[in-house]
Amino acid sequence: MSSVPSAPNSPPPEPSGAHGRHRVEPVLETENLVKVYGRGESRFDALKGITFQIEQGESLAIIGKSGSGKSTLMHLLALLDQPTAGVVAMHGRPVSQLKIKDVSGLRNATFGFVFQQFFLNPHQTVLENVTLPLKIAGVGRSERNQRGMEVLEQLEMADKAKNKATDLSGGQKQRVCIARALVNRPEVIFADEPTGNLDTATSEVVEDILFGLHRDHGITLVVVTHDDDLAAKCQRRLHMQDGLIVSEDRGVLSGTGGQS
Ligand SMILES: Nc1ncnc2c1ncn2[C@@H]1O[C@H](COP(=O)(O)OP(=O)(O)OP(=O)(O)O)[C@@H](O)[C@H]1O
Questions:
Q1: Which terminal Cβ of the chain has fewer Cβ within 10 Å, N or C?
Q2: Minimal-distance CA residue to ligand 1 atom 17
Q3: 69 lines ligand 1 (CB under 6 A)
Q4: Among protein residues, the one whose CA lies closest to atom 7 of ligand 1
Q5: Cα(16) to centroid of ligand 1, in Å?
Q6: 109 CB-contact burial (10 Å; exposed 0-12 / middle 13-18 / buried 19+)
Q7: Is residue 138 in some structural domain?
């Protein structure tokens, strides 16, 4: 875990943290973001006008009851889906100005994803799963494998590189997902219930890895979670209700993961 590369395109994190004395540049921001699913009688307004910023290098939890719109918001921020109205901007540039091909390239180069359900390909080895983002980016096989092995070593999973991805424990699978999220040296990691399928002890290991990457390498961490303990370790919490951000609070509330 000592040599995880920091994001190549981003400046080092501010020493005072994302909410310290200095104003930190937003990596992502939204303006009046609206998402409507369906139409007519089945119309559902999942996001009703969300305006906020994610600062470079911060750790942010998006919390709220089931159905409040957390995952919808994360999918729009991560450029996995398009809003019905409103703006998502990255480094100040509205994403809607980009071509679809460029959006997927940007997503692959800038973001890493860690999901509760792992989404590992059962027919591929651990190393093949980890290096998929590099394959998508057109990186050649030998560099792919070298970088894949580097991140697996950092996550103490190198000895499992040739295993099928299914032949692992839950915690090991999530470490493979984190390795896959890291292999492109992302600026932002989006984690949707990253510990939802894990027991308490394994959850702590995974949280330590995620917050270590955030703290030591300046990676911006955006976590969607129902887990109050995990949310408390983030520097900022956005509370969602019925498609709106109804409040936010700042400061690490417990644990050793983030910076207060
Ligand atoms: N593809 C879809 N079509 C129709 N409605 C959808 C779709 N995706 C989500 N919704 C609805 O939008 C609302 C917000 O869903 P979302 O998944 O963002 O909530 P959430 O806060 O992440 O919930 P959970 O904590 O249960 O994952 C829910 O009422 C959901 O049923």
A1: C
A2: 71
A3: yes
A4: 37
A5: 36
A6: middle
A7: no
pLDDT tens digits for range 190-217: 999 988 888 888 888 888 888 988 998 8
Which residue has the least CA distance to atom 31 on ligand 1?
67
pLDDT of 154? 86
Q: How confident is the model at residue 254 (pLDDT cuts 50, 70, 90)?
A: low
**pLDDT exceeds 80 at position 87:** yes
Predicted confidence band of residue 260 (pLDDT cuts 50, 70, 90):
very low
| Non-local CB neighbours of 84 within 8 Å, separated by 6+ positions | 34, 35, 36
Which domain does 233 fall in, by range?
Answer: 26-117+187-250
Chain segment 125-148, per-residue pLDDT in tens: 999 999 999 998 899 999 999 999
CATH number for position 35: 3.40.50.300
159 within domain boundaries: no
Asked if residue 16 is part of any domain, the answer here is no
Q: For 158-184, how does the pLDDT look when each residue is reduced to its tens digit (9 = 90+)?
A: 999 999 988 898 889 988 999 999 898
Mutate to test the pocket of ligand 1, among 41, 48, 66, 72 (most ligand atoms within 8 A of CB): 72
Q: Which pLDDT belongs to residue 98? A: 87
CB 140 within 8 A of CB 101: no
Q: What is the DSSP string of 171-225?
A: HHHHHHHHHHHHTT--SEEEEESTTTTS-HHHHHHHHHHHHHHHHHH--EEEEE-
Determine whether the shortest distance from the Cβ of 225 to ligand 1 is under 6 A. no
**Using a 6 Å cutoff on CB, does residue 68 contact ligand 1?**
yes
Domain count of the fold of the chain: 1
